[in-house]
């Protein structure tokens, strides 16, 4: 049996295209517009249909999270995503975000950021045409700017998290209630039976070839406060958090209280240690000062002796 081709889309289950409207263009599954950053971090809005590969690279980008891969152990353990009903039972509030790098991040206020499944990722024909490497040989080297290998692995890892999140009918209900799953072409919710087929196909894909998904998704839920700490010390400018969620100086102080306290304690310990060293040096200086002064006098008058004896009188 030939090994799987990492440059091809491995999923075949169709859950949104089971209608007679096959004359719709491939770009119909794309969003109306998308936001991205140009040079100097200036935000711009683009048309995804004009350059589909560029749109997919931005839509499926992990952003600054990709540079933290070796430090993600600090933010979360290697384990599958917990089912949605368990997150709800733990009191977490599902917050919808379209940023892939925020998917499954949670904060100390109880928010769980989840990216909804884009419609185009459930269209196998679209993914086979657009999420592939143009040159198969290039997949064995560093990815070029036009290579879709990384977006392909991110897309498969993202869908794998949904196979873990939406495990039971209760999870399926929570996902539809929060609009995490797209509607079919006739604007109806997905069928539970169709979702089960797709989820099981995703599990078989992962069991057959675990390396096909991006390693980011091997650690499902990540703590946002830990991500902020990693980002402060691994990116420029320094001490800049990964996600700013504050709107006033009070929230600014609360968000930075932990590391500011740690920095203050560290500086206080350093200054205390320096003070101890200086005081110890001054103590020894004062202690040795008399002997130093006596030695200085003896060096200024060499050979001179003082005698109290009376002069000898000759007879």
Topology at a glance:
Layout: E1 34-37, E2 43-46, H1 52-59, H2 84-89, E3 93-96, E4 105-106, E5 111-114, H3 124-130, H4 149-165, H5 169-177, H6 192-208, E6 222-223, H7 224-234, H8 249-300
Parallel strand pairs: 3-5, 4-6
Antiparallel strand pairs: 1-2
Helix content: 40-55%
Note the main sheet: 2 strands, antiparallel
Please write the string of helix (H) and strand (E) elements: EEHHEEEHHHHEHH
| Structural class by sheet pairing and helices | mainly alpha
Distance between the termini: 133 Å
Shape: elongated
Low-confidence stretches: none
Strand adjacency order, main sheet: 1-2
Total strand segments? 6
Number of H/I helices:
8
Mean model confidence by pLDDT: 83
Structurally, the number of domains stands at 2
How much is the radius of gyration in Å?
Answer: 34 Å
Portion in strands:
5-15%
Give structural notes.
The chain has 315 residues and is mostly helical. The chain has 2 domains: 26-234, no CATH class; 251-285. The chain is built from 8 helices and 6 strands; from the N terminus they run ββααβββααααβαα. The strands form 3 sheets. The chain has a two-stranded antiparallel sheet. A two-stranded parallel sheet has the order 3-5. It has a two-stranded parallel ribbon with strand order 4-6. Helix 4 packs across helix 6. The mean pLDDT is 83.
